[in-house]
Write a structure and sequence with these properties.
single chain, Multidrug efflux transporter AcrB transmembrane fold, Alpha-Beta Plaits, 3 domains, four-stranded antiparallel sheet, 12 strands, 63% helix
């Protein structure tokens, strides 16, 4: 059997190109009209599915557990977590209550809104959730200030505050022990903040609790489940915008000492979609520009560049139309097909045009040049399209459904690109041919360039030896390759949702990465709680019964004492309106009392407050009357704004009653008990932002309770599934490529190409280890894809070497080698520019593909010729000619 019979028969190619040349005008009109119609078809029919849950097969065991959890507790998914932060608990609590009450009025955007701190149950039972020691300390603190608190309750203004302090000073002077230092410190800070126009608010919560403000962040949470429309690119846009707008209207912002941050799965997905969309738009535009620049350098012909770009855009449109017809919607991964097509689809046009141009410069007629190019290049391009498509099609049998769609679209896109290259491109070149003999003159290679270009053949032995040593070294590095399970590390680190999530992860009390176990009955829930609570990696296990406070009788007795001591606190209070003159008089009276006790009070905080208060009054005197009024009102707000909320909370907590399981509110119970299944939430002891800590946490839990699920388990299991899927895809692609090469090429050449392919793959993987680029959910698709990309270059070089090359030492001086170089450069510029993306997943994919393409290119241009010449005697033939 001859070699020719292994390829597409030349007769078919000759008849095809003759048909194209004969009906070139009609073919151009039909294809361009079809492309125009396809644009409208795509616009009206192509959808977008942004639900990341559909990326992996629902048949995987861990996915079934996760779906079961979502079935029993549907409110646990696709949530917006509103995080309200401030330096004092008062501000965050008041802001959360205010925002929650307004959000409840907007039912059109939100399915479910849950704010634990706003539930009457938690407000009434707040003291019962304190330890007995904490409750007694609070009782003692309130007892100490009770005589003065009553005065302030009756007059919640600056007049009432400083009158109360004046009485407290007098009582202290009479020998009573009252610790005024914490309040005096807060007043000093309020005076300074008012004068300097800085955000600050006195924390009456800390004053009542007897706690110092340590500067740590206090957080309150609101959990929201919005309505999402997955038919739109950004399903949560309206909900997120509504929350931010409402927060601005309520002055929940940093200018008022409160910070609102949004995170949760819905917001993380939203901001990631924004990043990915922005990256794809920029990458696509940049790819087209760079491809045009590289084509100009390769062709030195404006018409060849224009014809190639027309072919590229037509193929891209037809591929998108094919995706619309066969898939109907794109996901977050398959949307990258456009960038991949631009990088790979233009390769065929480059090889076709360079070979055509090479023949034209030899004064061969246009019809003959197109026929010879189609026959000589068409067979190789067909084989290249098949092998590249295999690299994509290998994704289809895997459990990674999101990538399977990308494989189907891009794999078929390679055949679409081949068809367009072998039809529209020659039709355009036949209609407007390149002038014969134009362009740069054909000159013989200089001796220096000849030595450089013949290096792989002349020094084949050392190259083979070095390749063997380098490959063995890279093989030894394989065990050091690791996978990054943390999906946060894929996203733009500048996104607010990512920063917020990472901050919460660092705190075991607020970590959103907890694990979940469902118990079928109460006894099983108790057993699981005890079992999981003993694990080394577990900080605590929470379930429904934990919301029934312990030692209630003892605590209720203390609360009764507090009620007797404090009396009835008003539910609602009206702030009295006092004049600027009254405000100033009250402050001056307090300052006078403070100054009159110089011999009695030696503590430094008295002197510090006197100095601060005197300076503030002097500053006031220097201001106009209107400005004085504004400053005094601002000061009053800083001093007393949080007091009404604390009094309401105190009044509610003093009404505590015994709590049993039946007393828990439905809003709370539904979050922990559904369809007779109890939910147990397991919190980690370590920060799960560390991959090794996450692996330890999940491994230990699964060993104890196999049915565990939740974000950490999903991350670990998903990464294991993805790694397995791509190992499977890699070997599928490798086996298919090997079989095609063995069937369609000489056995010896097929083995050589496979050797170069594996060498390039090992060099790629070894380089990622040396450069500390871990595998992740985004860049792992590069490995099987590189097989398809890398084999193309080797096929073209080997085909040129075996068939139409006279001087074997000049293999790197041919249009085939030049085409390989420029086609790989266009791929690097189109796909590799993702490496500069702020989205770290896209960036890592761009980095890995760039490294891989470079390594495959080195294997094709250096190692492949050195292997092809093995056992052969190189005899220089006619001196090679190349473009100057």
């Amino acid at each position: 059997m001859t070699e020719r019979r292994h390829f597409l028969p030349e007769l078919v190619l000759l008849r095809w190109i003759s048909f194209i040349q004969r009906f070139r005008v009609w073919i151009i009109l039909v294809l361009l009209t079809a492309a125009g119609w396809s644009v409208f078809y795509i616009k009206d029919n192509l959808g977008m599915n942004t639900d990341t849950r559909d990326m992996l097969s629902p048949e995987l065991p861990w996915r079934k557990l996760d779906l079961q959890y979502e079935q029993f507790f549907p409110r646990s998914t696709n949530n917006i977590l509103v995080v309200i932060e401030s330096e004092t608990p008062d501000q965050s609590i008041d802001a959360a209550e205010n925002l929650y009450s307004h959000l409840k009025q907007n039912s059109g955007l939100f399915k479910y809104i849950y704010a634990p701190g706003a539930l009457p149950f938690f407000r009434q039972s707040a003291f019962l959730f304190l330890s007995t020691e904490e409750l007694r300390d609070l009782s003692d603190n309130l007892a100490a200030i009770q005589p003065f608190l009553a005065r302030l309750v009756d007059d919640q203004s600056m007049r009432g505050l400083f009158s109360m302090l004046t009485e407290a000073l007098q009582a202290t002077g009479d020998g009573e022990e009252i610790d005024l230092a914490p309040l005096f410190k807060q007043i000093r800070l309020a005076l300074s903040a008012t004068r300097d126009n800085q955000p600050f608010q006195v924390s009456w919560q800390n004053l009542m609790d007897g706690k110092e403000n340590t500067g740590s962040v206090h957080r309150e949470f609101i959990i929201i489940q919005p309505y999402l429309d997955y038919g739109h690119l950004l399903p949560a846009t309206d909900a997120i915008a509504a929350i931010r707008k409402l927060a601005d209207e309520l002055e929940i912002n940093q200018q008022h000492g409160v910070r609102l941050r949004l995170t949760g799965s819905a917001v993380l997905s939203h901001e990631e979609l924004l990043s990915v969309s922005r990256v794809n738009i920029i990458a696509t535009a940049f790819s087209l520009v760079m491809v045009a620049v590289l084509l100009s350098l390769a062709y030195r012909s404006a018409w060849l560049v224009a014809a190639s770009l027309i072919t590229l855009l037509a193929g891209l449109i037809f591929t998108a139309a094919f995706a619309t017809l066969t898939v109907g919607e794109l996901n977050l991964i398959s949307v990258a097909f456009a960038v991949l097509y631009i990088g790979l689809g233009t390769d065929y046009a480059i090889h076709f045009c360079l070979h055509y141009r090479e023949l034209q410069q030899q004064d061969i007629s246009t019809p003959s040049s197109l026929r010879d190019t189609s026959v000589q290049i068409g067979r190789s391009l067909t084989l290249c399209a098949a092998t590249t498509a295999i690299g994509f099609f290998a994704f289809i049998p895997t459990d990674y459904d999101g990538v399977a769609e990308l494989g189907w679209i891009s794999g078929c896109g390679m055949f679409i690109s081949l068809f367009i290259t072998m039809s529209l491109l020659p039709a355009l070149l036949s209609l407007i041919p390149l002038q014969q003999g134009t362009g740069r003159t054909v000159t013989p290679l200089s001796e220096t360039r000849r030595r450089i270009l013949s290096f792989p053949l002349v020094h084949a032995g050392p190259i083979r030896l070095c390749s063997f040593i380098l490959t063995a070294t890279m093989l030894a590095l394989l065990p050091l390759l690791h996978f990054d399970h943390n999906t946060l590390n894929l996203q733009d680190p500048g996104n607010e949702s990512v920063k917020t999530y990472q901050d919460l992860l660092a705190d075991s009390d607020t970590s959103p990465w907890s694990s979940i176990v469902l118990a079928e009955n109460r006894d099983q829930a108790l057993q699981l709680k005890n079992q999981l609570g003993k694990l080394d990696t577990v900080d605590k296990v929470v379930w429904l019964d934990d919301f029934v406070p312990e030692k209630q009788q003892e605590k209720l007795a203390v609360i009764d004492e507090m009620n007797y001591l404090l009396g009835t606190l008003p539910e609602k209070t009206t702030k009295p309106v006092i004049s600027t003159t009254q405000q100033l008089a009250t402050i001056q009276s307090f300052l006078h009392e403070l100054q009159g006790g110089e011999t009695r009070w030696k503590d430094p905080y008295f002197d510090e407050l006197k100095i601060q208060l005197t300076g503030f009054l002097q500053y006031l005197e220097s201001q106009p009357a209107a400005r004085q009024t504004i400053l005094l009102n601002v000061l009053e707000t800083r001093l007393l704004a949080s007091l009404p909320g604390r009094l309401r909370a105190l009044s509610a907590a003093l009404g505590a009653e015994p709590v049993g399981p039946s007393d828990l509110p439905p809003e709370l119970v539904s979050s922990w008990l559904s369809q007779d299944h109890y939910l147990l939430e397991i919190f980690p002891r370590e920060n799960l932002a560390d991959n090794s800590a996450m692996r330890r946490f999940v491994t230990e839990m699964q060993a104890a309770v196999p049915q565990v699920t939740g974000p950490p388990v999903v991350s670990i299991e998903a990464s294991d599934a993805v790694v397995g899927a791509f190992q499977q895809a890699f070997f599928y692609a490798l086996i298919a490529i090997v079989l095609i090469l063995l069937v369609m090429m000489r056995m010896r050449d097929a083995i050589i190409i496979i050797s170069c392919l594996l060498t390039g793959a090992l060099l790629t993987v070894g380089s990622t280890v040396l450069l500390d680029i871990p595998m992740n959910f985004a860049n792992i698709i590069a490995l099987p894809l590189l097989l398809g990309i890398g084999v193309d270059s080797s096929i073209l070089i080997a085909h040129r070497y075996r068939t139409i090359l006279i001087d074997k030492t000049a293999i790197l001086a041919t249009s085939s080698a030049k085409g390989v170089i420029f086609s790989n450069l266009t791929t690097i510029c189109s796909i590799g520019n993702l490496a500069f993306s702020s989205h770290r997943g896209m960036a890592s994919m761009g980095e890995l593909l760039t490294i891989g393409i470079v390594m495959m290119l080195i294997s094709s241009l250096i190692l492949l010729p050195a292997l092809l010449v093995t056992g052969a005697r190189i005899l220089p033939g006619k001196q090679a000619e190349t473009d100057k």
